[in-house]
Amino acid sequence: MGGMFKKIIIVQARLGSHRLPEKVMAKIGNYTLIEILSKQLDGLKQKGFEIAYAIPRDDFALKKYLEGLNQIVVQGSEENVFSRFQQVIEQYQPDAAVRITGDCPFIDPDVIFKMCEDFIKNELDYITNDEQYGGMPRGFDCEIIARKAWDRMAGQCLSARNKEHCTSYIIDNRNEFKTGLYSIHLPKAELKGIRLCVDTQQDLDYVRDICKRLGDFSFPIFHDRIIDLIRTQSLWR
């Protein structure tokens, strides 16, 4: 991957989740959810990625915790997530930004790396691996957005939905952008039966169970190991 191509991973996280408050600080085994995510991503720093956590300006406890994990933290608007990302982009001036939500502890760094390779090789504006387009199961999902696409969005009069979901403008106007999909070609039924993002207490209990069943492990935990576990032990959702 070209060394001159500047990449940043932006993780959006907050303490004020409505359905499951402070979920990013919930314990999963010996770690917090956000700590597992940070350990999954940390190896990418040696592969030329910068990593920043975009959090609400009032989440001082989360800022202190993440800085204790040696992470870069940028604080901004809680509701306008787009502006939070824009702050990071203006500060670090990347060629592309990888967007990850902080409730996906098992994000696979190898998938991010391969998506970036596809993104650069095909000169894309945007790539996703979201299951709703036939990508990967929920919980492994991320997006990569070119700087020029960010700048274009920033020049629009964005709706409240666009500001909350960051990339919905691209999805709504995909004919105006060069987009791509990263997939591992799972059968649809299996794709729908795997959900590893944490939005509810039920999700958290499920992820805790998966972590326990993995037994002793070192980071990163790759997606194929988790999917194999779900398949062999019939842990579909």
Structure in words:
The protein is of the alpha/beta class. It is 38% helix and 16% strand. The chain contains 10 helices and 9 strands. The longest helix has 14 residues. It is globular and about 50 Å long.
Label the overall shape: globular
Q: What fraction strand?
A: 15-25%
Low-confidence stretches: none
| Number of helices, where a helix is a run of at least 4 consecutive DSSP H or I residues | 10
Strand pairing plus helix content: what structural class?
A: alpha/beta
Give the C-alpha Rg: 17 Å
Strand order of the largest sheet: 5-4-1-6-8-7-9
Q: Based on DSSP secondary structure assignment, what is the total number of beta strands?
A: 9
- How far apart the termini lie comes to 36 Å
Mind summarizing the main beta sheet? 7 strands, mixed
- Helical content, roughly? 25-40%
Instruction: Let me know the average pLDDT.
Output: 95
Note the run of SSEs as H and E: EEEHEHEHEHEEHHHEHHH
Which key terms come to mind for this protein?
237 residues, alpha/beta, 10 helices, 9 strands, 38% helix
Would you kindly provide a brief summary of this structure?
By secondary structure, this protein is of the alpha/beta class.
Chart the SSEs and their pairings.
Blueprint: E1 7-12, E2 27-28, E3 31-32, H1 33-41, E4 49-56, H2 60-68, E5 72-76, H3 81-92, E6 96-101, H4 109-121, E7 126-128, E8 143-146, H5 147-154, H6 160-165, H7 168-172, E9 179-181, H8 188-192, H9 201-214, H10 223-232
Parallel strand pairs: 1-4, 1-6, 4-5, 7-9
Antiparallel strand pairs: 2-3, 6-8, 7-8
